[in-house]
Write a structure and sequence with these properties.
The chain has 246 residues and is α+β, with helices and mostly antiparallel strands. It has a single domain, classed as GHMP Kinase, N-terminal domain (Ribosomal Protein S5, domain 2, 2-Layer Sandwich), CATH 3.30.230. 29% of the residues lie in helices and 28% in strands. The chain is built from four helices and ten strands; from the N terminus they run ββββαβαββαβββα. The chain has a five-stranded mixed β-sheet. Strands 6, 7, 8, 9 and 10 form a five-stranded antiparallel β-sheet that branches. The termini are far apart. The mean pLDDT is 95. Bound molecules: adenosine-5'-diphosphate. Adenosine-5'-diphosphate binds next to α2 and α3. The site of adenosine-5'-diphosphate has 13 residues, from α2 and α3.
């Protein structure tokens, strides 16, 4: 059943409905190497989002006509499972999933050296097991880690986080309820190469003043910094456990 939207989005004490301060991220848990069948994989549990990314390649492109003789390509498939949201989602990929697949692909391409793999593809499959707002951002965070787990050279990681505005107040990392709030609302998913200080995704839904935009972007970058540290820590943990297991 779809959840009913609450009447208020901030509590009497000014905190958000889940008790977070405006600039607080939801809980984040990251696990690397969760799929034995993939060349690289990661699971990101961000708030109530549960997302798994599996990466394969570089390998021969199928269908062959997609192959490019001067460069490799990155192909991304983002899918929401039928049980990922309150109302059963149709298993057929919709327009939204195709758009998010493309958005995630574009956000990740800049960290790869695709020119080193002519005629080849790197494939990423993303499965959203449960969704609770900000899945494209959490998918980017997970997919970047799956690529890193594959062990191919990368310029940097990519970190995704959404920032928004409700009733004129900027808030970090919107939940589904916050995302669906309409009164004075805006939503801005951002993906960043933290080390290279480059933005690889910036979408804005809603209206904001220039001042609000700057405030929101700064809030997103602060949030991304924290997620980036956790991404690196998760990779370190996996790498160290592999060294111990040798
Ligand atoms: P994102 O997940 O990146 O925020 P959207 O803004 O399109 O992307 O979606 C916001 C949220 O709406 C999702 O995270 C999910 O919780 C919910 N949602 C998306 N698609 C559906 C759907 N088909 N049915 C119900 N809820 C959905």
């Amino acid at each position: 059943m779809p959840e009913k939207l609450p009447e208020k989005i901030f509590r009497e004490d000014g905190l958000r409905l889940d008790g977070r301060t405006p600039d607080q991220l939801r809980d984040l848990r990251i696990e690397i190497g969760v799929l034995k069948t993939a060349d690289g994989s990661a699971m990101v549990c961000h708030g109530k989002n549960r997302i798994i990314a599996g990466a394969y390649g570089p390998r021969e492109v199928h269908p062959r006509h997609l192959a490019q003789s001067d460069t490799g390509i990155l192909q991304v498939q983002y899918r929401m499972s039928t049980f990922s949201v309150g109302e059963r989602k149709s298993p057929a990929p919709g327009r939204r999933e195709k758009e998010i697949s493309m958005v995630v692909q574009r956000a990740l391409e800049p960290v790869l050296f695709l020119e080193q793999y002519p005629n080849s593809t790197i494939d990423i499959f993303i499965q959203v097991m449960t969704a609770d707002g900000g899945t494209r951002c959490a998918s980017i965070t997970a997919a970047a880690l799956a690529l890193a787990d594959m062990g191919i050279p990368m310029r940097d990681l990519v970190t995704g986080v959404a920032v928004g505005k409700i009733n004129g107040k900027p808030i970090l990392d919107l939940s589904d309820k916050e995302d669906k709030w309409e009164e004075g609302a805006a939503d801005m998913p951002v993906a960043v190469m933290m080390n290279e200080k480059k933005i690889t995704l910036l979408q804005l839904d809603g209206q904001v003043s220039m001042e609000e935009y700057e405030q929101m972007l700064n809030m997103a970058l602060e949030g991304a910094k924290k997620i980036y540290e956790m991404q690196k820590e998760a990779l370190r943990k996996k790498y160290n456990s592999e060294l111990v297991g040798r």
